[in-house]
Amino acid sequence: MTASQRRSTWPATTVVAHVVLALLTVIILAGVWHLGADLWQIFAATGAAVLLHVGAVVAHRRPWVGYAIGALAMLVLVTMPFPGWSPSMLPSAVCFPLTLWRLTSLVSVRSSVVALAVAALGIVLTELVAWARLPADPGWTRLVEGGLLMLVVGGVWLAALLVRRRHEAGRRAESERLAAAVADERASIRRDLHDVIAHTVTVMVARIEAAAVTTADPATRRELGDIAEAGRDAHQGLRAMLATLGPAAVAPRADSRPREVPISLDALPDLLASAASPLHAVTFAEVGERRPLSLSAEVAAVRTVQEGITNALRHLEPPVEVTVRLRWTPAEVVVEVRDDGGKALRDVGSQGTGLIGIEERVRTAGGTLSIDDGDDGWVLRARLPTKEGA
Questions:
Q1: Cα dist from 15 to 21, 29, 53, 69, 150, whole Å
Q2: Which of 134, 237, 309, 383 is least surrounded by CB atoms within 10 angstroms?
Q3: What would the DSSP string read from start to end of 25-56?
């Protein structure tokens, strides 16, 4: 299975955090109003708090816009007079560092430094306003408070930067893994093509040369000799072309499966029968008149069926029902492997590279591969051209 089964949803913890911060802010503002704050001050602080939550939400898709909204809200809270304390200490003000985190995780490092500088200037402004509002307080209190706020903002920025770099390293490692898997599968395709096509061409050339020896007609002998020579040239060209897919020999993967699976569509019933068990129902249906396929398309079709059955048996808790269907038209054959979702999904650890290899095979054969993840199971579908449709 692939990572497409992971669906993007809004985290419940984020919703709960917004609700809790908003409720705490409402409670504090109600207390401040009871202590004598003007109604316009309450409304202004409430509006700024709403902007802070909006900025945190918007930052998930538009980090700079969300950060700007949060910065504007903090500016309103810092400069607005409030009885005895700064409204910038409202619980909803926590949303501003969250927008900085989001911004740092998405934009370039240079841009995130600019955002950090804006936050630092905001802290300086906060302490200057607080000192002007309460000049009787010792100056060291402003320095200590400002230093603590700088540590918080700087810590958030640095943590976001470290997390971002770790994710980037993970993505690079995954890209390298996928590239290695594609290269490995190309080498496997090369071996399959060389073993089958080269052998077939060699046999054809041998038979033509034998026919040339046994014929008594000189013209026919020359014609057959020319055909044999053309076959040998084709063989050499094939070897040169296959060399572009990778080295002649590649060490087998740790998760590779035996390569003795037959590559003929006629062998599919036996392949499906070998996968069936009392807990695994595997059925086969073929619709339409069978058309001739190229060797690469036939190999891709068989490998698609094999991978679809293997995935269903590996990733699903039995009982499992798998249906393999071939639907023929003059232009293409649609190979469909559908499972019913089984009893439940199994935790099989890290993902394999089987589907990557199948996609490469299908693409090489001139077809397309699609994977559908529905509520009632998975569908692996390969569309491969027939010789008439190629």
A1: 10, 21, 11, 19, 27
A2: 237
A3: HHHHHHHHHHTT--HHHHHHHHHHHHHHHHHH
Residue 382 confidence (pLDDT): 93
Do the beta carbons of residue 91 and residue 23 sit within 8 Å? Answer: no
Take residue 14 and report the two structure tokens written for it. Answer: 């984020």
137-168: per-residue pLDDT in tens?
Answer: 666 776 777 788 788 888 888 988 898 888 88
Both tokens assigned to 157: 């920025």
Angle (CA) 133-139-145 rounded to 5° is: 85
Neighbours of 154 (CB within 10 A): 15
Q: Report the distance separating Cα 11 and Cα 13, nearest Å.
A: 5
Using the structure block, give the residue that is written with the tokens 């939550």.
Answer: 53
Query: In Å, how far are 80, 144, 187, 330, 389 from 141, measured between CA atoms?
Result: 20, 5, 69, 83, 81
Residues 363, 370, 174, CA angle at the centre, nearest 5°? 75
Q: Could you give the CA distance from residue 207 to residue 198 in angstroms, rounded to a whole number?
A: 14
